[in-house]
Amino acid sequence: MSAYTVTRGAFIPAPPDQVFQHVDSFRRWTTWSPWEDLDPQMERVYTGPEEGRGAQYAWMGNRKAGSGRMEIVESVEPRSIRIRLEFLKPFRSLSPTGFTFEPQSGGTRVTWSLAGEVRGAAKLFAPFMNMDKMVGKDFEKGLARLSQVAAPR
User: Fold this and answer.
1) Per-residue model confidence as pLDDT tens digits over 11-61
2) What is the CA radius of gyration of the chain?
3) How many CB atoms are located within 10 Å of the residue 90 CB?
4) pTM listed for this prediction
5) Least confident of 14-28, 88-102, 115-129
6) How far is Cα 133 from Cα 135, in angstroms, rounded to an integer?
7) Omega before 127 cis (within 30°)?
């Protein structure tokens, strides 16, 4: 097994509760998620509550977007959100994901993290896969977009 962790953070000039609401509802992810551009025709299915614990989101997209599902497993407003992220295509992977929202002077420090292990056939490519490089820039883009929607200028 090859374990990985990806973490990025950003200061967003808005109070924690204002930022939190954009992450706690998968329906709002379409306004800031870095992966929305990968497939304009992506199919989305939302189940469970609109926000918070138990909210679920599944997607099926083109080869770039792949397919998978997410579920909010813990939501502590306005401090943290834990998500069970399961990729189905292009390869199966379970990656616990989390967000923390730390109040700071004039705004919120948001930290986005992802952890997991490369398993199965994908392990053959693990020496050539740098998850931090592959996903880190997406996290940075997503946090910048989150700042734009949570703290419009």
Assistant:
1) 999 999 999 999 999 999 999 999 888 898 999 999 999 999 999 999 999
2) 15
3) 12
4) 0.88
5) 115-129
6) 6
7) no
Residue 50 sits in a domain whose CATH number is 3.30.530.20
- What are 152's two structure tokens? 């419009």
Q: Which helix (H) or strand (E) holds 16?
A: helix 16-23
Q: Per-residue confidence at 129, pLDDT binned at 50, 70, 90?
A: low
Query: Amino acid identity of 117?
Result: E
Q: Is the peptide bond before 13 cis (omega within 30 degrees of 0)?
A: no
Domain of residue 125, residue span: 2-150
CA-to-CA distance for 98 and 137, rounded, in angstroms?
A: 17
Query: How many domains does the structure of the chain reveal?
Result: 1
Mean confidence (pLDDT) of the chain: 90
Tokens 């399961």: give the residue.
86
